[in-house]
Amino acid sequence: MPYPNPLDLLLNLTKAEIALVALVLCIVYSAGYFIYNVYFHPLAGFPGPVLYGGTELMKVIQQIKGTINWTLTDLHEKYGPVVRLAPGELTFISAKAWQDIYGNRQGKPLPTNEAYGVREKEFFGALGLLWVGDAAEHARHRKVLSGAFSDKSLRDQEHIIRRYVDLLVKRMHERVGQPVDLWAWLNYTTFDLIGDLTFGEPFGCLENSRFHPWISFIFSRLKMMMYGQIMITLGLLGSIIYFLVPKWVKSEALVHIAFTKAKVDNRRARKTERPDFMSHILSHTVSADARASGKGISEAELYADSNILIMAGSETSATLMSATMYHLLATPHALARLTREIRAAFSSEADIDFASVSRSSPYLLAVINEGLRIQPPLPAGINRVTRPEGAVIDGRFVAGGTNVQVPHWACYHNSRNFRDADDFVPERWLADSGSAAAPGDEDAASRYADDNRPVFQPFSVGNRNCLGRTLAITETRLILTRLLWNFDMELMPESRDWARQKTFMLYEKKPLMVKMTAVRRESAQGGNVEKA
């Protein structure tokens, strides 16, 4: 009896039968994929929940819910310093891992995963500094941008920065006695500041007491940006999903890109020699042919970098300031101590500048460090990918092609790394500084002596660390000092739980409602008397 032709069988299937066959094949493939990942994948021996090691979907679910950082913290508490977060991804929280993942590694640092920059390249025609994978290309790129963030450049830019801090303080004086959203006002300040330094003009946020529409668009699309990264993680399935994204979503992104390019072009047309970010970068912007020789950056790279500078130089700094102010206001003894030290250090507001705030109060730096630890501006880590030959990370061999990272939030909230990890304790940073000068500081130094401080790397390490570290710390010192010198502040009841924020790449943006009371200073017998 002749066997039936398989092709004839397929051609004679009904639609319902075809759907059933497709469903069975999907189930069989998914089951096989899961079993392979759990038992036969090169990362199968690393600790972590079976479901996370078997499929990317568990990680994706936490990302969509905005709970990925809390989940990672719990996983590292349970499984230890390394966790398998997805079939091809590991997260680490040790000091050694920082060096192994982000350090120079004898001239061969682990590259970034350029796949995460695919949309950037699609929109601008080139990758910006953040996603350039090749070490030599990154070094060329970074050399151009690093000059804009040098100590000399920062000194040259001080008068520009202080202008916006002056305007912030003025706006707060206009609103004394009434609750203000401090998070919004700090973002107004940093966006205006970085807009001026990058594009030669502010966004007008402080002047108009509201966000520029371009900035509002960025904040409203944070989830969209996260979904874009998820699509890349999902590979072929992600590409199919991206193909189904409505055209209006892509059109909005193109409008944003066009605005960025127009801002850059307007700044280039001014040809001013004013010392700002762009004056230095433009002097190293060359044609594509000249760029091929290994010097400078191209016009497309200039556009991509400008887009990164706006977010990296503004939102993260405002988050640092907002988080630090929140935790100060929620910790009365820390607020009282820092306020007292600042007001004792400066008899006149005119004395508050970059140089003076850098040496005024060791406790101020301790407060900022603790703000960076307890609520890092970038809660996740930056992915690196191991080279084809693999790499040894924190004493364990990791197969090639693995995504690896140190997630800031999980690292700094782990009980193995920090005692009282969920508490705001600036005194822990005075232990090794020789600056203990208040009652209880010595007890704190003893209590937190075993904190694993080398894991605290909020600006990363290696040749890809944050270029804007000095700017971020300096402007935070300046703004916190000016605010605490001018105002007594009270956290409003509706913001008591402000720190508990979900994350969608960055934190969700909840208002930080604070009531300002101006400090009134009157001369009395040649001295200064403060009155609230």
UniProtKB/TrEMBL annotation:
Its cofactor is heme. The keyword Transmembrane applies. The chain crosses the membrane at residues 20-39, 226-245. Pfam families: p450. Heme binds at C466. Keywords: Heme, Iron, Membrane, Metal-binding, Monooxygenase, Oxidoreductase, Transmembrane, Transmembrane helix. One of its GO terms (molecular function) is oxidoreductase activity, acting on paired donors, with incorporation or reduction of molecular oxygen. InterPro entries: Cyt_P450, Cyt_P450_CS, Cyt_P450_E_grp-I, Cyt_P450_sf, Cytochrome_P450_monoxygenase. Belongs to the cytochrome P450 family. This is Isotrichodermin C-15 hydroxylase. It comes from Phialemonium atrogriseum.
